């Protein structure tokens, strides 16, 4: 069984807008619709868990889920105060423990069903796999006074993306450990890394951007226009 956990519980503070970023319209529909459609088109996905603020449940049903006529049933789960809490709530909603879970940011609408599928296939082989994009900039490490300490080899550097796919028991254990330790990671893969487990990374897409600012939204509109 393969579950997708789509996390869309953010408040969109950086957008400085009363509308949550996941409900901003792209091509005349909430961008969350585009994200959900990509996962619904992936034939390996068997169930979708959508994590949103509880006050947005009805809006999601009326404006996002019903108009799409998806083949997969959508289970709505309430979000938490932070992304990591929202992912955990999604994990608790998984019915089958002998499963694979694919965790994705709801505000990354341009992931393809092909990439989702490849991430799943690699996770089935390695227990954990994420998408990433090779670093193109030169990365410097500085000290706390602002002076460069060293330059990293960008041949081994990646910008992490989602989806990130994991054996259910592996990612649940990683989240449980982080909660006990009071640790907050920057992504789910980091929590797995902290347990000593290996995570496979494969190339995603440069267009698989996370929309968090107004500038990102402008870029998203440009990507959408190029793909028409």
TrEMBL record:
Feature type site, description Positions MEP for the nucleophilic attack: 154, 210
Nucleotidyltransferase recorded as keyword: yes
Entry's EC annotation: 2.7.7.60
InterPro entries for the chain: IspD, IspD/TarI, IspD/TarI_cytidylyltransf_bact, ISPD_synthase_CS, Nucleotide-diphossugar_trans
Gene3D superfamilies: Spore Coat Polysaccharide Biosynthesis Protein SpsA, Chain A (3.90.550.10)
Biological processes, Gene Ontology terms: isopentenyl diphosphate biosynthetic process, methylerythritol 4-phosphate pathway
Class of the enzyme per the UniProt entry, highest EC level: transferase
Molecular function terms, GO-annotated: 2-C-methyl-D-erythritol 4-phosphate cytidylyltransferase activity
Assigned keywords, A-Z: Isoprene biosynthesis, Nucleotidyltransferase, Transferase
Top-level taxon of the source organism: Bacteria
Catalysed reactions listed for this entry: 2-C-methyl-D-erythritol 4-phosphate + CTP + H(+) = 4-CDP-2-C-methyl-D-erythritol + diphosphate
Pfam families, per the entry: IspD
Function as written in the Swiss-Prot or TrEMBL entry: Catalyzes the formation of 4-diphosphocytidyl-2-C-methyl-D-erythritol from CTP and 2-C-methyl-D-erythritol 4-phosphate (MEP).
NCBIfam families: ispD
Annotated protein name in UniProt: 2-C-methyl-D-erythritol 4-phosphate cytidylyltransferase
């Amino acid at each position: 069984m393969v579950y997708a956990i789509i996390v869309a519980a953010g408040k969109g503070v950086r957008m400085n807008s009363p509308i949550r970023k996941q409900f901003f319209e792209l091509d005349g529909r909430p961008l969350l619709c585009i994200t959900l459609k990509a996962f619904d088109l992936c034939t390996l996905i068997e169930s979708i868990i959508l994590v949103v603020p509880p006050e947005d449940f009805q809006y999601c049903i009326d404006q996002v889920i019903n108009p799409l006529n998806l083949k997969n049933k959508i289970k709505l789960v309430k979000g938490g105060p932070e992304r990591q809490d929202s992912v955990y709530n999604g994990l608790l909603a998984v019915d089958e423990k002998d499963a694979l879970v694919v965790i994705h940011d709801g505000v990354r609408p341009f992931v393809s069903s092909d990439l989702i599928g490849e991430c799943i296939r690699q996770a089935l082989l390695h227990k954990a796999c994420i998408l990433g994009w090779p670093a193109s900039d030169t990365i410097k490490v500085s000290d706390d006074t602002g002076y460069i300490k060293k330059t990293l080899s960008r041949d081994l550097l990646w910008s992490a993306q989602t989806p990130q796919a994991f054996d259910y028991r592996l990612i649940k254990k990683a989240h449980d450990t982080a909660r006990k330790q009071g640790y907050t990671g920057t992504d789910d893969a980091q929590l797995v890394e902290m347990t000593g487990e290996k995570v496979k990374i494969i190339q995603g897409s440069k267009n698989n951007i996370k929309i968090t600012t107004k500038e990102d939204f402008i870029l998203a509109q440009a990507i959408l226009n190029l793909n028409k």
